[in-house]
Design a protein that fits this description.
By secondary structure, the protein is α/β, with parallel strands linked by helices. It has a single domain (3-125), classed as TIM Barrel. 35% of the residues lie in helices and 25% in strands. The protein has a five-stranded mixed beta sheet. Strand 3, helix 3 (69-73) and strand 4 (85-89) form a beta-alpha-beta unit.
Length: 126
């Protein structure tokens, strides 16, 4: 089964493309939910690092990658310049002290505050 990328532009307040969100797709029509969030995140990051990293740097725009709680907590190594990646927390992540520590570890690894996004994460914090 081969993987395909879909992307959608992310606009800033001035309606200028700031980044592109990478979305998991494959040629069999399976979604991230079909293969599991962890597998989808792993495959997407693998393909990013081995196949399209040069594309991202060429356009000088970061990419957003949805990550699961398990990925955040895994202490995985992301071998790409943090300047070009925005770690996006999926809305299914329930905030906890462990999750907050994991996000702080990503920030400490160079994924600064602007490089972390919450994909509907605020709804869980109310």
């Amino acid at each position: 089964m081969s993987q395909l990328f879909a992307s959608q532009p992310i606009y800033d307040r001035q309606n200028i493309i700031y980044a592109h969100e990478l979305l998991y797709r494959n040629d069999s029509g399976f979604t991230a939910f079909d293969v599991g969030e962890d597998m989808a995140t792993t495959e997407l990051i693998y393909n990013l690092c081995t196949g399209i990293a040069e594309h991202v740097e060429h356009f000088n725009q970061p990419v957003c990658i949805n990550v699961s709680a398990d990925f955040l907590l895994s202490k995985a190594f992301l071998p790409i310049n943090p300047e070009f990646v925005i770690i996006e927390l999926v809305e299914r992540i329930v905030p906890s002290p462990e999750i907050i520590r994991a996000v702080r570890a990503w920030v400490d690894a160079g994924f600064e505050g602007r490089s972390n996004a919450a994909d509907e994460f605020a709804a869980h914090c109310q």
